[in-house]
């Protein structure tokens, strides 16, 4: 039973992952795990702003798959928003700060990961 | 006295649960029936992987977190606290049509139910856990009035309701429901947890928000007013 459940979970998560851009390397896989833990609750399993919490929020979480919008946002702003929260980049405070939870290296990893997810180049 | 024991027996028979605590102590109940899912001592493994693999929330600081009365009642009649289970990310069903993700409740299992004697014994044993760990400062909650802004802080200004529901089930679903926080949680624990959730659970997905003490006091005061009553 347990093993069956485990396999099922494995298959499901593989199926889920396949909707995202191909995982190029370990760093991307690690950052995807961090994203699934902390960001997907609001930004969604599909990374498009439709997390389980999104219906309870007055401001919609950013769509991280939006190539144009994400492409127009420089790395520095992404880093600052994740580290110090939406308020630090003149966006909604409903985007929380993560500097008390994530290391600088993990935050840098997320910035690179967002470029993969949005298929936008680093700025 | 006789009618009491009749009620007790009827309860046992009706719910099909066994009481083993009469002879065994609460610590044994925890060890035998709970430790497969719950950490009863501080886990040595503080990795992100553990957060994904554990089967229940940590209980090693239960004695500084819960009110005993709530524990004893909940263990006999457990209700949902975390809408997405112990790790929401494992219960999410990704949306296929640009609406919000949903929780696949089929992935969640109902909590084990204890009989009256076992839950009293388990509650006693749980209340002994964590006092020596220095996680919660006694008197941290200063017991001031929450003030008229407290509810707004929770639902709008500090974004707590993105993840928590407080009343009537509206609110986010990645964090525990707090509609019963006043009955369930100790005020000093709430102050400590809101200030630094990672002190309790190194990778938990509630952010450390860097709130002022004034905000934390008001939020805790507000949460203390939330209680499920018979009437609801």
UniProtKB/TrEMBL annotation, chain A:
Source taxon at top rank: Bacteria
Keyword Coiled coil: no
Chain spans, region Disordered: 50-77
N-terminal signal peptide: 1-24
Species of the source: Rhodanobacter fulvus Jip2
UniProt-listed InterPro entries: Cyt_c-like_dom, Cyt_c-like_dom_sf
Name of the protein in question: Cytochrome c heme-binding site
One Gene Ontology molecular-function label: electron transfer activity
Protein keywords: Heme, Iron, Metal-binding, Signal
A Pfam family reported for this protein in Swiss-Prot or TrEMBL: Cytochrome_CBB3
Gene3D superfamilies membership: Cytochrome c-like domain
Biased composition (Basic and acidic residues): 60-69
Ranges where the Cytochrome c domain occurs: 26-118
């Amino acid at each position: 039973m347990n093993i069956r459940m485990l396999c099922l979970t494995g298959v499901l998560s593989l199926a889920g992952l396949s909707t995202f851009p191909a995982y190029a390397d370990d760093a991307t896989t690690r950052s995807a795990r961090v994203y699934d833990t902390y960001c997907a609750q609001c930004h969604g399993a599909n990374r498009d702003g439709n997390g389980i919490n999104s219906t309870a929020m007055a401001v919609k979480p950013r769509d991280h798959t939006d190539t144009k919008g994400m492409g127009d946002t420089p790395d520095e702003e992404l880093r600052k928003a994740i580290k110090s929260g939406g308020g630090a980049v003149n966006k909604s405070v409903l985007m929380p700060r993560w500097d008390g939870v994530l290391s600088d290296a993990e935050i840098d990893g997320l910035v690179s990961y967002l470029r993969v997810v949005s298929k936008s180049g680093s700025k | 006295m006789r009618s009491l024991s009749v009620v007790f027996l009827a309860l046992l028979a009706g719910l099909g649960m066994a009481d083993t605590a009469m002879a065994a102590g609460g610590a044994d109940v925890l060890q035998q029936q709970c430790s497969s899912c719950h950490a009863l001592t501080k886990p040595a493994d503080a990795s992100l992987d553990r957060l994904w693999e554990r089967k229940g929330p940590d209980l090693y600081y239960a004695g500084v977190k819960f009110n005993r009365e709530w524990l004893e009642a909940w263990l006999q009649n457990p209700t949902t606290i975390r809408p997405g289970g112990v790790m929401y990310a494992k219960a999410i069903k990704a949306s296929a049509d640009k609406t919000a993700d949903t929780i696949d409740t089929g992935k969640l299992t109902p909590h084990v139910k204890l009989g009256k004697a076992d839950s009293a014994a388990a509650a006693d044993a749980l209340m002994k856990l964590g006092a020596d760990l220095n996680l919660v400062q006694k008197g941290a909650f200063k017991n001031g009035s929450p003030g008229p802004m407290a509810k707004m802080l929770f639902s709008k200004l500090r974004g707590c309701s993105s993840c928590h529901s407080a009343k009537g089930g509206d609110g986010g679903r990645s964090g525990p429901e707090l509609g019963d926080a006043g009955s369930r949680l100790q005020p000093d624990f709430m102050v400590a947890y809101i200030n630094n959730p990672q002190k309790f659970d190194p990778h938990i997905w509630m952010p450390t928000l860097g709130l002022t003490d004034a905000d934390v006091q008001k939020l805790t005061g507000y949460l203390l007013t939330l209680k499920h009553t018979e009437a609801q």
